[in-house]
What does this fold into?
Amino acid sequence: MAVQVLIDSIDRTKRIDWQSLKIQNVLTSRIDRCSFIIETYGDTTYRPNLGHEVIIYRDATKIFGGLILSIEEAPEAYNIIGYKIECVDYTRLLDGKLVTEVYENMTINAIIADLIANWAPTGFTGVNVDCPNTINYIAFNYVPLSKCLKELAERFNYDWYVDYDKDIHFFNKEENAAPFSLNDNDGSYIFPTLQINRDNSQVKNVIIVRGGEYLADTLTAEIQTNGVDYMFNLPYRYEDFQATLSSTNLNVGIDFSSDPDLHDALWNRDEKVLKFKKTDTPSNAKLLKIIGRPYLPVIIKQKDNVSVEAMISAEGGNGEYEYLIIDQTINSKEGARQRAAAELYAYSQTISEADFETEVDGLKSGQRLHVVSAARDLDEYYIINKVNIRMRTADQFYYHVSLVTTRTFGMIEMLQNLILDKTKEVNLRKKEILDLIESFPEIITIDDGTPTLSKVHNPQSEAMSFAETLTVQSLNYDVDFVAGPWIPFQNYDTGQINPGTAANDASIGALAWTNPDNAKVSDNVYATAAIPGAGSATTQYLKATNFGFSIPIGAIILGIEVKIERKATHQLVGVADNAVKIVKSNGSIGSTNKAIAGAWPLVDTVQTYGGSADLWGEAWDYNDINSANFGVVISASLLSSGAPLVASIDNINITIYYQDKHKRVFLADGSRLE
It folds into this structure.
């Protein structure tokens, strides 16, 4: 088999010291290398140059392609100069530019295609990129292209390399099969050279991923005032920020931008603080509510219970070995789960490494090799991590091959250094919300009949009950089933919320309400309507809206309860409800009338309309309730002729009853929030 060495497209094979030719083929971003000595003597004028392309063939097969990285002169005798040449593969060319790009909801195939098109030098291709998995979000901030490929590979436990034709290979480790298996007696390897090493030092079976931040759904935080503090620290940065004090909406301005004399308080988003003027310090025992969409930290904890049980069996203790990944470029919990799942796949089991030597061609780094050795009671798959090639004769190669079932401990340390790169650091806070995921190796079969449990892992019988609920989640990470009694939804109510706006509406009746704004708070200061003892004796609507509700996205509205605190100055003649109706999100008034028969009392009395299961004849979603137009109207009328009187309303408030997904979250200290 002939070996040919081309330097800058010219055949220099005859000048190469064949005994010096060595090729190292390694996995992923660890660049392949080649070294040899080329000799010049006599009237030879050729001198190798840095950057020249080197291509090595064995017959028609290209076994190396790259560039000259270093040249060391080594005079051997008078008029004979040897040049020690060190070459690297084409991966070096990928890193000429630093990538600054953000990708959202794209497949790995599409991301790499874009990286090649916009950031790789001319001549690189992606024919052998094969990963249809989707990433929700990933950002590259001035990083080499090879590092981009490495980060993408880590998300799904893939590997990659650049071949000697400048084509990028991106592949599942499980699917890149070697051209032959290793067996004791078929000549596939030199028998005494096979060595197997097993090690538990790298086991990591509980992975905590702390990413950046994500924009959550609307949350409400409550602060009890003490009559002294006028500046209040907020738990998060917010979007759609609102605040109420004792159920009254505050006019909130922007700190260092808004005029404090024109606002109730000023909000500083970055410093996470709400400031009142010292002269407007909230009095003691008032309830300050902070409403908005917070930026919450991405933090999840994922455990491999099979590995934990195996470590308990082998070593005792609790079997858990935790590992923290910090990467602020991960800004979704699903992305964090994908990262944790890939880490568990790689590190949760005992590492097994092997080395052997062979004269058989065809093995390359990244291939999956089946090793079968009856003498060692071994039947296992390995990944080829490194192939060192050297010349045995002028036309015959000798291969030293290194195998791993997963990444070595030294590579973990390298990964830790990468993860703790300054571009990925984040500040950790106490009591961060933790998304806890544990995987169990149970096989559950669900059909139209009775659910059954396959107990292939554990020969025990288990009694299990199932509700008529099927929870489906993305299959980009391990699926978790919850078996047994479990309530996936929780009922909530908003409490009694006062309106931000109260006004007279002349779309009904003839008698207007005076001082309608007084109906916003229960304080014995009234909105009133003077009703004559005869004639046209129906009031216009007193309309209450702008309640500032923040019902969560996707919540199911169960009921609407309205409470109106009202009285009249004369009960014998009497004032009664004429109409009590809901105001919809488009500003129109509903058709259902909740008016209650009977005279209004002489003293303040709260009357309830609707309830926890009353939808007032309408269909609602969370947007309808959160609308500033949503509210209620009331009109009163004279019961019978007699003396003039006054109808008075002290307060109108609304409580919303709704159902939301029940969220069980765990804090970093292990405690649980419901």
